[in-house]
Model the fold of this input.
Amino acid sequence: MDRVRDLASQKAAVIFTRSSCCMCHTVKALFYELGASPAIHELDRNTNGKEMEWALREQMGCNPAVPAVFIGGKFVGSAKDIISLHVDGTLKQMLIDARAIWF
Amino acid sequence: MGSRGVKVGANDGNKVVNEIMPSYVPPISAPNPIGTEGSSIRSSRILDFGTLEQSLGFRIEDAVDITRNSLFNQIKSSGQALGNDVQFGGLNKSLGPSDVKMSSFVGSQTVSLPKDSQTKVASVSGCIRENWGESSMADASPRTDTSTDDTDEKNQGLERNQLAVVAASDSSDKSKEKAGDQKTLRRLAQNREAARKSRLRKKAYVQQLESSRLKLTQLEQELQRARQQGIFISSSGDQSHSMSGNGALAFDVEYARWLEEHNRQINELRAAVNSHAGDTELRTIVDNVTAHFDDIFRLKGIAAKADVFHILSGMWKTPAERCFMWIGGFRSSELLKLLVNQLEPLTEQQLVGICNLQQSSQQAEDALSQGMEALQQSLAETLASGSPGPSGSSGNVANYMGQMAMAMGKLGTLEGFLRQADNLRQQTLQQMHRILTTRQSARALLAINDYFSRLRALSSLWLARPRE
Done:
């Protein structure tokens, strides 16, 4: 979990993914669309990936474990949350607040 | 069982009875042989009775015809064995010694008829007729209840006849036979009783069978009808929480039902809007419609678990709707584009809100579309990879299995995409209602419904168009 938090606080927008996960691809695409450049951590290519995935699922309650989005170091949610937040404009605001994007 | 030719000697009444007593069983499974046998028997009987006819002065042939026909019908219909023919035995007994041959069409047993006593034979001939007819109808499974009733009646009539014949024979026979008669009579009576009881039991059983069969066909029909209507019958019999079994069919029907209810609610809304109803009333109806929308999303989710491809295929929609479908449903950004013009007047804030909503919706749709494309590509790669080696090598089989497993995993994510697409649709609608006033929401819902109704109507027209 610490590793997760560590990585999550390194950049304004951080997304934990798996290289084979297509929903992760969707979330990434959305962030790029918004002009953000999130840090992407592919857990299946990471040495501690399994551990982190477990931490995300069990300790953060993120189900499915990936994609897991952190904005400004705070856990935001998985794909479903991101879409919901995006539709009502909250996501954009969060990104602006965290200085991931400017407008 | 089988053919037994029994010739009755002059003084051997009892023996006749004993030997005739066992039931003679017809060749059950082959009614046709009986038919042919019958015809041959008929002719043979005619031969046998030729002499008798002359001496008896009546047409045995007639008697035989009647009984033969009835017996054939019975045997054909049931193929059942003729049971203990008590009467026959009794008849023979009462006839006493004689030399007439009678071949039975069932077992080719022959029984002698008395040649000498004219009166006896006359009454006996009546017995023969009733006897054979009665026995055949009794023991062949009665097709109708009346046959058994007739049987019973005939039974009693026969008993009367028999007793009469017995009495006649008693009076004219030697007294030494009287004791034997009594015993025989008792036995005959018991046999008759037993036979009658068994006939009644069989009748009851057959009735039961028939009614059960009727019930079964009725149930099957109901089930068929119900299945067609999409009430899906789960094997556990739990109907209220449907949606696990026949996902596609059940969903189609659920959707049809949902659409019906939706149209009804829209009509209610339209009436309220046209009659310039108050905001509270409108709000209630709008909330109802929105909640009803949530219903179909929930249903789709459940159906997607059972059969994601059915939902994605859009076969539950009309053709024109299907054409503009996106990941198992409508495109919210398109919908908003349609609405903007119809929702005038909008405040500045509202306009901005709607435009932003449209843009967000578009972006989310694009992201999801990209995800779907990535999925397709990944799946294609998975299935395409693998060296084309010699078939049958275990390495290739393992490869193949691995490939399939991976592909299966990827397919599983389809449901997730459908879910997120529906989520997007739901969120967009909710956000729209937040931006608009009650009245505007009402008009928006009506406009959405108009659009889709026209699409559906277009589909119908298209399907019904005259083709050259």
